[in-house]
Amino acid sequence: MIGLEQKLSLYGFNNLTKTLSFNIYDVCYAKTEREQKGYIAYIDEQYNSERLTKILCDVTEMIGARVLNISKQDYEPQGASVNVLIAEKALDDDSIDPSCNQGVLPETKPRTVAAHLDKSHVTVHTFPEYHPDNSISTFRVDIDVSTCGMISPLNALNYLIGSFDSDIITIDYRVRGFTRDVLGKKFFIDHKITSIQDYIDSDTLTRYDAIDVNMYQSNIFHTKLLIKDIDDRDIQRNEYL
């Protein structure tokens, strides 16, 4: 007989799903093959799975959630992925399925990793690469913060933007489903929002040109950010290379 897994009580649960998705791009001019490979090595060191895990754990704490399970992996020749399954609030150990590691990772690297996904999760994938002909090297980060309940991924928006070297950022925010109040009335969104820019720090917005493409009737919001001026990041990277 197969044993039953532990189940969590969701009585009074807010069924709205709020998803914040990023595509972050860092662009670097690396003329020689040595510079190109050096840039990839720099990115792999700066954004390995260990550091990405810390970033996602910080995000989890920032939005008021709790870690249930973490899976992470570095890749060859480059790149990394991390997935964090989260809960809306602190839980008793007896109510958590024993297969969840609650953020305590083994010291030895696993040969394979199976990601445990649910309605509330935080994920990141990195894609460092360079073009063999035109001297352009890029670093792409894909991030998803998906939550149910009262917690909101928007609370971690500025932290995530500041955690990466970002020349180009595309951000999507969507609220799906519906929830009900105690009288049974449906609500398709539980907070006011006119633009993702409303939640971005004003100092950050001064550094980027921003364009919105929103579908208010569907609670879908999209913002594109393009950095205005090249700062000293390239100089710092070149010194490292």
Keywords:
241 residues; alpha+beta; 10 strands
Can you describe what's shown?
With 241 residues, this protein is of the alpha+beta class. It has a single domain, classed as S-adenosylmethionine decarboxylase (4-Layer Sandwich). It contains 5 helices and 10 strands. The protein has helices at residues 33-46, 49-62, 157-162, 202-206, 233-240; strands at 17-29, 66-74, 80-87, 121-130, 136-148, 168-176, 179-180, 186-187, 208-212, 220-227. Strands 2-3-4-5-1-6-10-9 form an 8-stranded antiparallel sheet. A hairpin with a 7-residue loop joins strand 9 (208-212) and strand 10 (220-227). Residues 95-99, 106-118 and 235-241 have low confidence and may be disordered.
Tally of individual helices: 5
Task: Give the tally of structural domains.
Answer: 1
Number of DSSP strand runs? 10
From the 3D structure, determine the CATH topology: S-adenosylmethionine decarboxylase
What share of the residues lie within helices?
A: 10-25%
Overall spatial form:
globular
**Biggest sheet: strand arrangement:** 2-3-4-5-1-6-10-9
Distance between the termini: 59 Å
In brief:
With 241 residues, the chain is of the alpha+beta class.
